[in-house]
Design a protein that fits this description.
Chain lengths: ~450, ~450
């Protein structure tokens, strides 16, 4: 039993939908199809979701909404016509889009979410209709009927734990169920969306709920590459990643899947595969809990910029019980999220994303560290990048660090900071951003080309 | 103007005192002599300070104190006779020792400190007398007269900031001043000692107070070695260290000087030299604020055992604002001091000295992490050692890490954790204790023998 999810670009046109149909039909275990709203057909196209945002804004500003309604309906009409699905489904979708403009505005915390969710919801109806017309027993199912209940937090819904038992009952359905992604329903029956890009989350929740054997996430790339293709020429695609490795790579700039989306599948121990709708024969990248069989020590190399470091030194710092905690407390009170704390004996660095440090917060931190914690020196270091080498099997391979450090040294790259935790899933290096690309290339060469 | 301090073994006998006299006489800038109590003359000897502890215990238990009084007085008598200093000084010292047994016991928080301080105090009188008899204009000065005032914290006195202005006036004295180490006087006139081994602190305070050009600390070794002589055969002695480097080495097992003793000299920007009373021509190890001239990237390699690590992992840990702070808060509430926090993305390790983690505290930590912070996994890793490579000039030498990692790899030593802060004064490696000696030898070979 498999859950299969398609992203917006896989569903942007009739031609794409034909590929989707072939993929679903090809494996009778593909029983749950989670879909996004129609995405862009070409670079300059508008996503249906973005059109819905425009529609919402016009509606609450009490402007004329006819044009934008028509644009959206036409978008679906184009696909319906190309697939010869007929008038019934078009009328159903049209009504749904037009009816949005009769929802109450005042005191309706879920209005925005309801507008947005219409993109996925109507696409699911369309796709179910298309599957049925082509002889695949399929049925559109609304999250309310499916049992996907969420908290009442507009724009950032979280699944209610009770959902999982309800969802499990879907296993008994005979049809292929087509489920709109991106939203759930509150216990009061309101539409409430996950954070943007949230169709991945729906797929993950459904996979965990129906205890799927596999969660197939179809995108427009052949899986995950061992390094960014914009930096390394033709990097090889990773055949197998663990969830932990995926997290580390996603953290440092790999953005195939939104990592929060993976939690339900991770907790449900469901393996996941990332595949390409446009190249379905490519095995893609499988994401598993534990590596199967022997594998290489390093699976991928990631780099991300826009980091800064707050470097603090104080003579005899490490004798002070609570010093580190007090520093972190200052950051927390300013609602600043930190990333790493490489420490010496009398110095500590706090590495964080540059966006966390506004000029006002920066002044406040310096002032508090100097006045309350009486540090000897505090300095803000900018234009830093983080480079991560990632691989759970590093643990059993002595010499990974030597190989990496040698690569840096050979290319005259200075290591500003280093941190490797006991999990040994990754080693993190902080370097100057101007050397980031050279560093990723040097490491890729060292681990994959030699 | 120099402050010169002698440790107990340099002052244990007449023969040692003759060396001390020659050293002081050899340089007319040596104007402030800080002395310890007489130390051991041989392996099985008793230190005068330990005899004074015995004396104190007998006195407060209202036992007969005559024997122990006599032992202490005889100890000074032996030196006085050997140096032919005559009856006057012996009577002065005898009276001082005997008078201790007429101090009030009840409600006297400073009684123990007063007993202990008598070792240094009487030795200073003796040494001043000896210097004068040999034609060096010298004068014993009590900390009260000198102006060394401290907080009323028996056994852990801290200098009152006002002391420094008073001490500065000592610059105007014409004589060589002989000052007993280890204690100061409260504003109520009570004797109050620094923590044990505190003659180093007195020297450091006097040096800062009189704004000395140099603080000479005489011990019984030729300075500080680049690695522990018990691990590496005949390691070379370090000619110049910075205060920061000294701190890092002291942290990881080098114990020539108690590093807290250095604070006043460090803050006063006074350079320090560690020399050998028994080999005064050896240049020793100079400790400075900044390196003078070019120097090697790595000055020393230290290793210390008995560390443990608390390894925590939680999926999406790094998304939680305040997670790290909460972990440190748990430790702080249990009064546990931590050393390093190497982090991955979803895992953090807390490295601490094994003595900090009693079985009860360990249970409490695991329980709180599991219940309150809902971590996925927590594991205690034992038998760990920290290896540090230390050198402020690493910063300007690319390739130090590569050299170190290569040495580890060649000797099949797995790096459990790594941390390098932005100061780049040191790189810390956590390894299994069973590989500690091999690691120190490998690194020493790599940085000093090749």
């Amino acid at each position: 039993m498999k859950v299969i999810k398609f992203g917006g670009s896989s569903l942007a046109s009739a031609a794409q939908l034909e590929k989707v149909f072939q993929i679903v039909k090809a494996d009778k275990d593909r029983r749950f199809v989670v879909v996004s709203a129609p995405g862009k057909r070409h670079e300059d196209d508008t996503k249906v979701t973005d059109a819905l945002i425009k529609y919402y804004k016009a509606y609450i500003a009490e402007k004329n909404v006819a044009d934008i309604q028509n644009w959206i309906i036409d978008r679906y009409r184009g696909i319906i016509d190309d697939l010869s699905l007929g008038q019934g489904i078009l009328e159903r979708i049209s009504k749904s889009i037009i009816d949005l403009a009769s929802l109450p505005i005042e005191g309706n915390a879920f209005l925005y979410d309801t507008f947005l969710a219409a993109g996925e919801d109507n696409n699911a109806k369309l796709i179910a209709e298309y599957f049925k017309k082509n002889g695949l027993p399929a049925r559109y199912i609304h999250p309310q009927e499916a049992g996907l209940f969420v908290t009442s937090e507009p724009g950032k819904a979280r699944t209610l734990p009770s959902s999982y038992d309800k969802l499990e009952e879907l296993r008994n359905c005979d049809e292929v169920l087509v489920i709109p992604g991106f939203f759930g329903v509150t216990t009061e029956g309101q539409i409430c969306t996950f954070s943007r890009g949230g169709s991945d989350i729906t797929g993950s929740i459904i996979a965990a709920g129906v205890k799927a054997d596999l969660y197939e996430n179809f995108t427009d790339v052949d899986g995950i590459f061992a390094a960014h293709p914009g930096v390394v020429k033709k990097p090889h695609s990773i055949s197998e990643l663990t969830y932990k490795e995926m997290r580390e790579l996603a953290y440092a700039g790999f953005s195939v899947l939104h990592d929060e989306a993976l939690i339900p599948a991770y907790r449900g121990k469901i393996p996941l595969v990332i595949k390409n709708t446009n190249n379905p024969d490519h095995p893609g990248t499988k994401i598993v809990l534990k590596h199967t069989g022997a594998t290489i020590p390093v699976v991928g190399i990631a780099g991300d910029d826009d980091f800064v470091s707050i470097n603090i030194s104080k003579y005899l710092m490490n004798r002070e019980v609570g010093f580190g905690r007090k520093v972190l407390q200052i950051l927390e009170e300013l609602n600043i999220r930190w990333e790493h704390i490489p420490t010496g004996i009398d110095d500590m660095s706090i590495v964080l994303r540059a966006r966390e440090l506004t000029p006002i917060k920066e002044q406040e931190i310096i002032s508090q560290l100097t006045r309350h914690l009486e540090v000897d020196e505090v300095e803000i270091e900018r234009d830093l990048s983080i480079i991560m080498i990632v691989g759970e099997n590093m643990k059993s391979h002595i010499g990974v660090m030597a190989k990496a450090a040698e690569a840096f040294s050979k290319h005259h790259i200075n290591l500003e900071m280093i941190s490797q935790g006991s999990s040994e899933v990754s080693v993190m290096f902080v370097i100057k951003t101007e050397q980031e690309k050279a560093a990723v290339r040097a490491l890729y060469d060292s681990f994959f080309n030699s």
